[in-house]
Amino acid sequence: MSDDVRNVYEALSTISEHWQPHRLTSINDYDVKVVKLQGEFVWHTHPDTDELFLVVSGELTIQLRDRDVVLGPGDVFVVPQDVEHCPKAADEVHAILFEPKGTVNTGDAGGDMTAELREFV
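C-alpha cells predicted for Mannose-6-phosphate isomerase-like protein (Cupin superfamily) (121 residues):
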C-alpha cells in the first residue's frame, strides 16, 4: 500500500457501482474502505469480526433483527461480531468501512452481491 496521501472525496468520485468497496488504505491488519451504497443489501453476519460504518454523506439504515439504526453524515456505528444485519439506503450513501483485511462484504451469506475488493492506484 502506498504511503501517499489519499482523499476520501476524490476516491468516492471514482466509484461508479454500488456495494463495491474499494480499499483506500490499510492500517495494521485493517483495511479502510470507501463504498457507495444504494438500495438494500443482503442479511449477513461477520462471524469473526466487528464492522465499523462511518457515513460521509446520505442516510444509511442498518437493519438489525431487533431494531433499525439510522446514520447520517459524520455518524459512526459498529455492528458487533456475529450480529445479523442488512444495510439499506433509499438514496445514494457514501461511506467508509473499517474491517480486518480479507473481510468479505457479504460475510457468511455469500451470493451475487459478494464483491471482490478493489484497489485504488
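The longest helix spans residues 8-13.
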